[in-house]
TrEMBL record:
This is Heme oxygenase. CDD domains: HemeO-bac. Pfam families: Heme_oxygenase (PF01126). GO terms for molecular function: heme oxygenase (decyclizing) activity. InterPro entries: Haem_Oase-like (IPR016053), Haem_Oase-like_multi-hlx (IPR016084). GO terms for biological process: heme oxidation.
Length: 195
């Protein structure tokens, strides 16, 4: 897990910035209101709709198909939440990252898969949030439980077998930073147009 530890350390600042604008505190202290939750779902819809294909295509292009089974599409769950909340599809006007190397793709995948790890805790907090009690379910956050936590150590071991040099790690860091910046910027940006 050396590569994951390296990426965690090197992206810690961006991770904290992202959690701050993605309402992490409000989720955990159960002060998140319905409008904020609607915004979270809309933004996650946009992010996953763009990041899942970007990463999957990058894995295929760079012949990293050993990693594709870790990428569990979550768009079905997001569509269910968007339908429940009657959300239009929103464009957030941000530029998608260009993950040019295999190492950058692996760094981006590290961020997306890592974001799933907190989903079970978030799901529990949402279920206990009295301001959201009118909602029958939280499909996106609930779908985190469908992906076994044991996959994360396996993913980290595979990262260690691919990211062998300082140059490899530096490339992965660039990809992780690019995806963190995208997520941060989407959560910090108000919606500007409906599709």
């Amino acid at each position: 897990m050396q590569a994951a530890a390296y990426l965690r350390q090197k992206t810690q600042g961006l991770h904290q910035q992202t959690e701050a604008v993605a309402l992490g505190r409000e989720i955990m202290d159960q002060t998140l209101n319905l409008d904020q939750y609607r915004s979270l779902i809309s933004k996650n819809h946009f992010l996953h709709n763009n990041l899942e294909p970007l990463l999957l295509n990058g894995l295929r292009y760079h012949h990293l198909t050993d990693f594709t089974h870790f990428l569990h599409p979550r768009m079905e769950a997001l569509r269910a939440d968007a339908h429940l909340l009657e959300l239009p599809e929103i464009n957030y006007g941000v530029k998608l990252p260009e993950l040019r190397s295999s190492n950058e793709v692996l760094g981006g995948l590290y961020v997306l898969l890592g974001s799933n790890l907190g989903g079970r805790v978030i799901y529990k907090a949402l279920k206990e949030n009295l301001q959201l009690r009118e909602l029958p379910d939280f499909h996106f956050y609930g779908s985190s439980g469908n992906h076994p936590a044991k996959e994360w150590p396996q993913f980290c071991r595979m990262l260690d077998s691919y990211l062998l040099s300082e140059s490899d790690l530096a490339g992965a860091k660039l990809g992780a930073e690019a995806v963190f910046r995208l997520v941060r910027d989407v959560h910090a940006t108000p919606a500007y147009s409906e599709s």
